[in-house]
Amino acid sequence: MMDLIKNRNDSEQRMTSLEIAEVTGKSHKNVMQSIRNMEPAWKKVNGLKFQLVDYKDKKGELRPCYSLTKTECLYVATKFNDEARAKLVLRWKQLEEERLKREMKPMTDLEIMCRATLILKKKVEQKENLIADLQPKADYCDEVLDSTDCLTMTQVAKGLGMTVHELTQRLLKERVIYEQSGQYMLYAPYARRHYARNRTHFHRDLFGNPHTHTYLVWTERGREFIHSLFC
Edge-to-edge strands of the sheet including 5-6? Predict the structure, then answer.
């Protein structure tokens, strides 16, 4: 007897007209004719035709047969006699019980490993896709935050709507910077985070004598930190 056929998404049970003929004791030719006779009314109500598929006969030649869902099958059976209809109902009951037994059967260790591998593979693919989506943004942030271009205290203060003096006093109060020998320096915890750098300015006085002046400039990472403190 032909096994139960499933559709593409493997979620809906089907039975062929060949098996219907075998179960009911009818010829396949007569079963096919009964299905054809009942198809117009089914299409009118349901909007769909019955599914035609191919099978190989004993000669190896392809022949048409119908593949019906349980609902379609029992609809066609309404034209059968009581005995044939009863046999078909019982066959469906048997097939559904067999399916439930297969689904409830405990998986082997190999099946569990295969399923776990598929789930893990899917999660890895999802994570890789997420990383691929976020990488351009991460690269941009790193490029901006690690930029070698720095901002003066005046520029940072302006972005906060403060004067240089106001910003300096607040940074001193928050113990972000301290003054040493006329120069502002970062406290060690902040220096390690590369919030600022020292910039040296070279110039000559009116007599042509060279002088240097070192002052603090802020990286983009440092500017973000200051904004987080005072905004």
Answer: 5-6, 13-16, 62-69, 51-56
- What's the one-letter identity of residue 157? A
CA atoms in the 13 A half-sphere facing the CB of 185: 9
- Residue 163 sits at φ, ψ, to 5 deg, of -90, 165
Q: Which of 201, 210, 212, 191 is nearest to 152 (CA)?
A: 201
Helices marked H in 66-108 — which ranges? 70-76, 82-104
Does pLDDT of 163 surpass 50? yes
Q: How far is CA 30 from CA 56, 82, 95, 174, in A?
A: 19, 17, 23, 94
In the block, residue with structure tokens 């006085």: 205
Phi and psi of 63, rounded to 5°? -130, 150
Task: Check residue 227 and give left, alpha or beta (phi > 0: left; psi -120 to 50: alpha).
Answer: alpha
Q: What is the pLDDT of residues 73-127, one digit of tens each?
A: 989 999 899 999 899 999 999 888 888 877 776 767 777 788 888 888 888 888 8
CB 118 within 8 A of CB 124: no
Sign of CA dihedral 186, 191, 193, 195: positive
End-to-end CA distance of the chain: 78
- Residue whose C-alpha is closest to residue 67's, from 6, 1, 24: 6
Q: Please report, for residues 43, 71, 98, 186, the alpha-carbon distance to residue 77 in angstroms, rounded to integers and kept in the order given.
A: 16, 10, 22, 88
Q: What is the pTM of this model?
A: 0.41
